[in-house]
User: Which sequence fits this backbone?
């Protein structure tokens, strides 16, 4: 028999798994930095879970597919209500504080939506090319219409008509005013001033969407994220796990917390939506140029100074390395 004289030293490594959205990942990053400062043998694995799909770098976050699927059911109900009345309007408010992905994808999946409003794309109500003009034209053509609005859309317009002091929630996010109720009243007032009969039904399925079980696609995705997180943490890495260009990756915390994933209104997907709904873009040349500049700056984000030395030691590619 061969005797092994080598003695293996077992190093106990504590692993912490943190599940949540962009705020949670920022918290995970702060925990990771404090662990490094203290020199502890602790691996921190962040697992993105938010239906808003606003986590940067990754293809999509867990829960997004389920949210879009349930949102489509709410849109279907709004379409039935709208088409059952003379000049009927179905208005659906969906989640999306800063990013309108749920509204955009649910609109594309439904095919019954006539107008989709998201935070990334500014719009205006009155005047030529405005929302009211489009509503009047659509009702004359189809006798009904469906509007989908993300909760973060039109906040600048609401602030002008309802002056209130900025308030923050427990997480430090700005409290949003209810764009759905505000838009409902604005549309009613406009139609009344035009002496135009119409019926509007407002549907807010927010907590129905949040509370339902995940669908098969998200169940599989969640399992794969868990497997990747466990393997990476057991190897001693600290990271946020996610799918990047179809491959599971360990992403440095600073990459997913330094910016937010948003709908690019200069991108082809938004153009597909405009083609599907036939709505006007509501954008001026200045708005388009501003969006392109914001996209350009987002793609040239500097690496934080605290991470520069660490980044030199490890590959800059988010597809191969996390933080160790």
Assistant:
């Amino acid at each position: 028999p061969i005797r092994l004289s080598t003695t293996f030293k077992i190093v106990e490594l504590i692993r912490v798994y943190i599940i949540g959205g962009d705020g949670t990942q920022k918290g995970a990053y702060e925990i990771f930095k404090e662990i490094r400062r203290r020199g502890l043998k602790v691996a921190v694995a962040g697992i993105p879970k938010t239906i808003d799909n606003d986590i940067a770098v990754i293809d999509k976050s867990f829960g997004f597919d389920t949210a879009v699927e349930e949102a489509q059911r709410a849109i279907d109900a709004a379409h039935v209500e709208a088409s059952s009345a003379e000049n009927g309007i179905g208005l659906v408010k969906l989640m999306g504080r800063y990013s309108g992905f749920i509204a955009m994808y649910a609109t594309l999946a439904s095919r019954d939506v006539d107008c989709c409003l998201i935070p990334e794309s500014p719009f205006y109500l009155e005047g030529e090319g405005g929302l009211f003009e489009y509503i009047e034209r659509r009702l004359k053509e189809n006798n009904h219409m469906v509007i989908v609005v993300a909760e973060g859309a039109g906040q600048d317009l609401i602030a002008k008509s309802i002056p209130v002091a900025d308030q923050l929630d427990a997480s430090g996010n700005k409290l949003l005013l209810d764009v759905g109720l505000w838009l409902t009243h604005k549309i009613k007032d406009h139609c009344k001033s035009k002496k135009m009969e119409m019926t509007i039904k407002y549907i807010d399925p927010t907590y129905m969407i949040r509370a339902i079980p995940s669908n098969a696609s998200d169940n599989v995705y969640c399992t794969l994220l868990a497997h990747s997180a466990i393997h990476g943490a057991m190897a001693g890495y600290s990271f946020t796990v996610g799918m990047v260009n179809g491959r599971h990756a360990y992403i440095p915390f600073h990459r997913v917390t330094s910016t937010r994933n948003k709908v690019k209104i200069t991108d082809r997907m938004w153009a597909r939506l405009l083609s599907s709904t036939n709505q006007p873009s509501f954008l001026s040349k200045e708005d388009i140029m501003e969006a392109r500049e914001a996209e350009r700056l987002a793609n040239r984000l500097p690496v934080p100074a605290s991470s520069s030395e660490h980044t030199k030691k490890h590959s800059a590619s988010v597809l191969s390395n996390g933080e160790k």
Residues 90 and 145 are 6 Å apart (CA to CA). The first helix runs from residue 22 to 38. The mean pLDDT is 86.
